[in-house]
């Protein structure tokens, strides 16, 4: 298979080790590209929800693929996020083509890019971490239930439906949080004279030029590999938002099998939480 040569690829919010992660689809994508630089912008391995009983081979293969890209010449920058914040103890490690950092500034064709995960601007993470972790577990359960619902919808000839997107769009506080998050990131980027500000964290893929009275910047968010299956690609002095559902050979997996494979595990975890 001929691979697409790209200058930069940005991925975030993969959440390896959770039920919602689309590791197989991500592996498909990684197998079709040959980037000079690969930026993993946080929440790659979900250490918050990590469990010894669940880390499928497909998730492990994603890690192996990333290592393989690194050994074959791709420069890999792993930027820590809140779900993999444990790795911040080891920040500023540089081994061969691999580096582990908390944030990154890159010169891209005479323009400056400011790259970070974005959880530092999330008050629910910085002040009520226990609540954020509980919310992460609930989100994982919601995604799994959503897969089962989509299996039924596909069987009766209906379009798949996203529960979490519906909730986000219908809850005013959620919409306000996303808007505030993007506004804070772009205002700081303009003040610091960055041409690009590249984030993850909120699972909302976007490329948008922002202008205010102090200047302008381009806001980019790489989305996630739970629902959107998106990545940022830079080539020939141009950013593009890649969507695997549209551009890749994405096939809706057997949702019924996914649901019932994990049903017992979910029941066990739920009982464990009640007993705490």
Structure description:
- The chain has 276 residues and is of the alpha/beta class.
- It is 39% helix and 26% strand.
- The chain contains 8 helices and 12 strands.
- It has a 7-stranded mixed sheet.
- The longest helix has 27 residues.
- The radius of gyration is 19 Å and the shape is globular.
- The N and C termini lie far apart (51 Å).
- Which structural class do the helices and strands define? alpha/beta
Could you give the distance between the termini? 51 Å
Beta-strand percentage range = 25-35%
Number of helices: 8
Record the strand order, biggest sheet: 4-5-3-2-1-11-12
| Average of the residue pLDDT scores | 81
Largest sheet geometry: 7 strands, mixed
Radius of gyration from the CA trace? 19 Å
How many strand elements?
A: 12
Q: What series of H and E elements makes up the topology?
A: EHEHEEEEEHHHHEEEEEHH
Runs with pLDDT <50, length 5+? 123-135, 170-175, 252-264
Relative helix content: 25-40%
Shape: globular
């Amino acid at each position: 298979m001929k691979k697409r040569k790209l200058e930069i690829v940005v991925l975030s919010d993969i959440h390896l080790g959770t039920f919602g992660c689309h590791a197989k689809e991500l592996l498909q994508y990684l197998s079709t590209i040959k980037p000079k630089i690969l930026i993993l912008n946080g929440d790659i391995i979900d250490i918050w929800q990590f469990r010894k009983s669940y880390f499928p081979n497909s998730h492990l293969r994603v890690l192996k693929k990333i290592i393989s890209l690194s050994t074959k010449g791709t420069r890999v920058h792993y930027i820590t996020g809140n779900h993999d914040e444990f790795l911040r103890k080891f920040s500023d490690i540089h081994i061969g083509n691999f580096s582990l950092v908390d944030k990154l500034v890159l010169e891209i064709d005479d323009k400056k890019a400011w790259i970070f995960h974005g959880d530092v601007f999330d008050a629910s993470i910085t002040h009520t971490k226990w609540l954020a972790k509980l919310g992460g577990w609930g989100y994982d359960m919601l995604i799994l239930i959503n897969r089962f619902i989509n299996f039924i919808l596909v069987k009766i000839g209906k379009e798949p439906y996203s529960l979490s997107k519906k909730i986000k769009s219908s809850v005013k506080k959620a919409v306000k949080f996303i808007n505030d998050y993007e506004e804070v990131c772009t205002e700081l980027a303009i003040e610091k004279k960055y041409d690009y500000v590249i984030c993850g964290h909120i699972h909302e893929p976007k490329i948008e030029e922002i202008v205010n009275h102090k200047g302008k910047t381009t806001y980019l968010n790489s989305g996630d590999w739970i629902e959107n299956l998106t990545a940022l690609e830079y080539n020939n002095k141009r950013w593009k938002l890649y969507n695997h559902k549209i551009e890749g050979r994405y096939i809706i997996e057997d949702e019924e099998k996914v649901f019932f494979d994990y049903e017992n595990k979910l029941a066990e975890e739920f009982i464990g939480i009640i007993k705490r």
